[in-house]
């Protein structure tokens, strides 16, 4: 049961794990993948890690794309982006 009274988003993963666990003679070894799917649904560790990596990469490009100020023309000029932004941050 979820907080709103409906079915929890991870309930189907739990049912799949439960079916696997009941039907196996060695459930710990055989049902590890279904248990990992259930835990990923509840904790979302892999999803958060991926989001963090994507934000890191976007931040690199934003830092490199900041225009530079030219005092002679009193204006901001666009910057050429490098082919490999990781080379800047090593």
What do these coordinates show?
The protein has 90 residues and is mainly α. The chain has helices at 11-23, 27-30, 32-43, 45-64; strands at residues 68-70, 75-77. It has 2 domains: 1-43, no CATH class; 45-90, no CATH class. 54% of the residues lie in helices and 7% in strands. Strands 1-2 form a two-stranded antiparallel ribbon. The protein is elongated. The model has no long low-confidence stretch (mean pLDDT 86).
Q: Provide mean pLDDT, rounded.
A: 86
Rg (C-alpha, Å): 24 Å
Largest sheet: 2 strands, antiparallel
- How many domains make up the coordinates? 2
Order of neighbouring strands in the sheet with most strands: 1-2
Question: What characteristic shape results from the CA principal axes?
Answer: elongated
Structure classification? mainly alpha
Strand content: 5-15%
Instruction: Write down the secondary-structure element order.
Output: HHHHEE
Separate helix tally = 4
Helicity, in percent? 40-55%
Q: List segments where confidence is low: pLDDT < 50 over at least 5 consecutive residues.
A: none
Give the number of DSSP strands.
2
C-alpha termini separation:
48 Å
Summarize the structure.
The chain has 90 residues and is mainly alpha-helical. It is 54% helix and 7% strand.
Key features?
single chain; 90 residues; mainly alpha; two-stranded antiparallel ribbon
Reconstruct the topology from this structure.
Elements: H1 11-23, H2 27-30, H3 32-43, H4 45-64, E1 68-70, E2 75-77
Antiparallel strand pairs: 1-2
